From TrEMBL:
Top-level taxon of the source organism: Eukaryota
Claim: Transmembrane is one of the keywords in the record: yes
Gene Ontology molecular functions: symporter activity
Localization, UniProt: Cell membrane; Endomembrane system
Gene Ontology terms: cellular component: endomembrane system; plasma membrane
Protein name: Amino acid transporter transmembrane domain-containing protein
Domain (Amino acid transporter transmembrane): residue spans on this chain: 21-450
Topology of this chain in the membrane: Multi-pass membrane protein
Natural source organism: Arachis hypogaea (Peanut)
Amino acid sequence: MVITRALMEGEVDDDGRAKRTGNSLTATTHIITVVIGAGVLALAYAMAQLGWIAGIATMIAFAVISTFTYNLVADCYRFPDPITGKRNYTYMQAVKAYLGGTMYVFCGLVQYTKLAGITVGYTITSATSLVAIKKAICFHKEGHQAYCKFSNNPFMIGFGTLQIFLSQIPNFHELTWLSTIAAITSFGYAFIASGLSLSVVISGKGQPTSITGTRIGPELSAEDKVWRVFSSLGNIALAANYSTVIFDIMDTLKSDPPENKQMKKANVMGVTAMTILFLLCSGFGYAAFGDHTPGNILTGFYEPFWLVALGNTFVVIHMVGAYQVMAQPFYRIVEMGANMVWPESDFINKEYPTKLGNIRFNFNLFRLIWRTIFVILSTILAMAMPFFNEILSLLGAIGFWPLVVFFPIQMHIRQRQIKKRTLKWCMLQLLSFMCFIVTVTAVVGSVHGISQDLHKYKVFTYRQ
């Protein structure tokens, strides 16, 4: 009765939740904020491997495909009707509603595997940036001919130790100020990297480039060139992916005009802005460094050292919060599963009210031990394979086909009841198959790159 009265007075939406006020512009802002992340730093390297023609074409192709499939997802926010149906609050909920329990489980495996893997990638990214800061200071003090190579391990251990403490804070990833800091720092390091690259080009110190990318020669065989191209596809796929949060964004939109129409407009504006920024970052980076474009564009600069240090500091600050944004949902699903299997266990379920100074919080033994073990394992994996480009490429490849292409297309087919072997069904399945081939290619290229690096460097002894 209370909900009905509130609904009539316009205080709540049709699902009884607080009235949503978002629009296509706020959704566009969310999209841009989400995609400007660590993956942007690897795009210049991807452009260098692909060259101007293939690099630009690939980024535009990913943008077009992403816009198309995200628009299909927009129609699946509600079930079964895209305008009047029941809301789906998460990606997995939508998959379950349209495709059933088996696909729901498959979607969960992909989504949570990617979330867990990204924590490894963020640990590597943070350590890479911290070492870059130390190198910039070293070169500034000792000169550019000095030996300034440092191990990533101490920085990864420090980052992991911090994450152990942050992981004990329930719902840390939902703190409002965290999103604000993430947005500011991510735009900060993206623009610093682009600005530094542009300054090199304007000063006339940019390196030769090619329409076909890095040149085959004594330093690069034709076979290695192909593997690098394959791996670069994963880097681009990671940067363009916001599938894990698209339902969270849609759940902020008001229902008039319909959410799907607003989201489709936001997808077009967001992906367009994203693509322009990606092309600028990757293009300026490649023009500055040519064949020697580093995997993380910010690690290629040493002067002005204070600006390089600031850009890398922004990266570290962003990664500290972003780690928890990815890890907390993974923690929660494991803890929910443990609660369902052992509902009577005090070790798993009992909360102990604790006071530390003026701070009061609940302490749980299972949460403490499980989350600590997870952070330690992710840190050890990062220390064993601290290869920025290859790890990010693998993560991008794993998530691209299933989450960006396969599930949206299958949900659209089920929603619109498209009959098998019709022209539209065949075209949609062809698109899905082509993207599957891209994903497999990127996975193979990434795994090969990791394998090559492991043969080149002893485990835990990599120095940057």
